[in-house]
């Protein structure tokens, strides 16, 4: 894995010096696979970016989003990994999920099947709970969990997601036990929380800001080093004495082996899109926590994350083996 990612990083850095142009790309519609349900944070990020990718790819580019939820992202990641590497199938990939799935079980894809293109979003984790629960901060959550072992049900986008690992970290550090209820995506988690089917949602902060502002959900904290500007009223976990920093990378990827010229055009179009004032305004309206990394930097970041998750799994697996 490490050697492979290093090779990708070297190759990625090299493509930007290439002068050969794939002038006619794209010549037909591009499919963008989103591995989670429509309406969730990944889907919103993808659909917000798409018009600007089309703009900067040029040649009357057309990108069609295809949602492939299931198995914590594995269904969509597998579809992307096994697609023809011709530049006409791309996808949004999510870390840690895309890394943790092959660590925790025999998956139908490997990271060797995926070419990172660019990171688009880094979204801090957060816990949300209904006002009727009578819990307003992390101290109260921990106290309730200690008095009621296993009675705090919480929803996530699946085992091994950043949402799941965040709760496990809290359990380990504070001697409490919650009950995990996995879903196909965070839109489903939100619906279950609002419907009273689970006690707590472990999601990303951008996906709960609107509910927090409306007073329908209390967000107990965000798992970032500093408060994200879009949720400036929500304290970090660290501010409350809980040293947990966890979040989700939402990023653009493609099947490994994509032509260098297509990768170059996709990478350049992503960077231009993320500097477009209209996109920045739209991203702000949608509450996207933007964090750009080019293909080379993103590949190196994935390598570091992967090594860390492997070490964590070796120390304490996050699902039963």
Automatic annotation (TrEMBL):
InterPro entries: BUG, Bug_dom1. Belongs to the UPF0065 (bug) family. Coiled coil: none annotated. The keyword Signal applies. Residues 1-23 form the signal peptide. It comes from the Bacteria. This is Tripartite tricarboxylate transporter substrate binding protein. Gene3D superfamilies: Bordetella uptake gene, domain 1, Periplasmic binding protein-like II. Keywords: Signal.
């Amino acid at each position: 894995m490490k050697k492979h990612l290093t090779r990708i990083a070297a190759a990625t850095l090299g493509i930007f010096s290439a002068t050969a142009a794939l002038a006619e790309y794209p010549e037909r519609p591009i499919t963008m696979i989103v591995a989670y349900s429509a309406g969730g944070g990944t889907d919103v990020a993808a659909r917000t970016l798409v018009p600007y990718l089309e703009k900067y790819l040029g040649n009357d580019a057309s990108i069609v989003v295809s949602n492939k939820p299931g198995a914590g992202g594995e269904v969509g990641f597998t579809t992307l990994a096994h697609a023809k590497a011709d530049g006409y199938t791309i996808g949004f990939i999510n870390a840690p999920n895309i890394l943790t799935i092959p660590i925790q079980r025999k998956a139908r894809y490997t990271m060797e099947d995926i070419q990172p293109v660019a990171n688009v979003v880094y979204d801090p984790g957060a816990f949300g709970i209904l006002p009727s629960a009578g819990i307003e901060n992390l101290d109260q959550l921990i106290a309730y969990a200690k008095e009621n072992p296993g009675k705090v049900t919480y929803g996530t986008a699946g085992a091994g997601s950043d949402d799941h690992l965040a709760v496990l970290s809290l359990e380990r550090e504070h001697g409490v036990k919650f009950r995990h209820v996995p879903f196909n995506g965070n839109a489903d988690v939100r619906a279950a929380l609002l419907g009273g089917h689970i006690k707590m949602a472990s999601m990303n902060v951008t996906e709960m800001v609107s509910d927090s502002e409306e007073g329908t959900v209390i967000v107990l904290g965000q798992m970032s080093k500093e408060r994200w500007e879009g949720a400036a009223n929500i304290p970090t976990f660290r501010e409350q004495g809980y040293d947990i920093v966890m979040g989700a990378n939402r990023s653009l990827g493609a099947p490994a082996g994509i032509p260098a010229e297509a990768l170059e055009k996709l990478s350049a179009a992503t960077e231009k899109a993320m500097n477009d004032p209209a996109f920045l305004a739209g991203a702000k309206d949608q509450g996207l926590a933007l964090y750009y990394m080019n293909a080379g930097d993103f590949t190196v970041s994935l390598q570091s994350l992967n090594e860390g998750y492997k070490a964590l799994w070796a120390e304490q697996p996050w699902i039963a083996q």
